[in-house]
Amino acid sequence: MSGGQMGYIKKIKPLLPFVGTLFIVCLFHFSKVYVLKFYPVIVNSFIFCVFFSSLFCKETVIQKIAKKMDGELSEFTRNYTRKLTYVWCVFLFINLSISFATVFMSPKIWTLYNACISYIALGLMFGVEYIVRIILRAKYDRGQNASTATDRDIGNYKTIGEEGKKGEHSD
């Protein structure tokens, strides 16, 4: 390939996802191929299988992502991410089931759910999970700081009490 062709390919490369999406939308819109309605079912099935199968591994998918972002995980984070994987599995299974059911419904209902409602539900799931994570992390951090402070204060009281007793014995 010449340098001009390489430059042209580099300019077009970022547009390929948009062109592919436009192609698929047109294919769905102008085609009567029934099998195309199974596309969301296939994608949801794949994602569900990845999350669900990770529950049987030492680290779940969410734990692996958290580990890449934060490094070593605390016990709290490991427990939270494992439970979160269960929650995501339930959500993904429900989404998969509804996507499958819409295949046999009218095209308007299929489009409404698979092109709108499922994405809103996904965004809500991310948002609610993020808020819950912040709240639980704050409670955990307060608990850790309180127990550390309590241990430190108890140690100080013992020291003060022991010094007082020493002072009493020395008189």
Structure characterization notes:
The chain contains six helices and no strands. Mean pLDDT is 83; it is low at 151-171. It has 171 residues and is mainly alpha-helical.
What characteristics describe this protein?
171 residues, mainly alpha, disordered C terminus
For the biggest sheet, the summary is: none
Low-confidence region ranges: 151-171
Anisotropy-based shape: extended
What is the helical fraction, as a range of percent?
over 70%
**H/E topology pattern:** HHHHHH
- Tally the helices: 6
Briefly note the structural class of the backbone: mainly alpha
Radius of gyration: 28 Å
What is the straight-line distance between the termini? 97 Å
Overall number of strands? 0
Briefly, what is this?
Helix content is 84%, strand content 0%. It contains six helices and no strands.
Q: Helix and strand layout, with pairings?
A:
Blueprint: H1 3-12, H2 16-30, H3 39-54, H4 61-70, H5 75-102, H6 107-170
Helix pairs in contact: 3-5, 4-5, 5-6
